[in-house]
Amino acid sequence: MSRCGLVGYDERILILRDRHAPAYRLPGGLVRPGESVEDALRRVLREQVDADIAHLGFCATVELHGHNDPNGPPVYELALLFDVTITDPEAVQWNEGEVRWAADTDLHQIDVRPVVIAERLRSGTLTAETPWWPSRS
Fold this sequence. Notes:
By secondary structure, the chain is of the alpha/beta class. The chain contains three helices and nine strands, in the order ββββαβββαβαβ. Strands 1, 2, 4, 5, 6, 7 and 9 form a seven-stranded mixed sheet that branches. It has a two-stranded parallel ribbon with strand order 3-8. A hairpin with a 2-residue loop joins β1 (2-9) and β2 (12-18). The longest helix is centred in the N-terminal third of the chain and has 13 residues, at 37-49.
């Protein structure tokens, strides 16, 4: 299971792109054994963008299907998406790739993964009333 942070600031969303990756993504990653999901997100935001969380609220569970290895078996994953406010958004930095604050108009022009999350962000259908995002595959 993984978790992602939907970090907003000044009508923009924080997205990251790993140094050699073609697409952007939300900050987040895997939960370590014995670690709570919220603690994992706090740890990862500190590690990835040197940010501390001021507010954290559950947003949605996202069902993901895909392939990590084109020759391997399909992968099924549940990702937990959290609405995050960080203490100092202006100080965000990352040494492992590119950090970007994307406006709604930017999201229509750049590649953001996973696609199911990008589609919700682009369409404006990200609401607290729809906490389950099933895969369409």
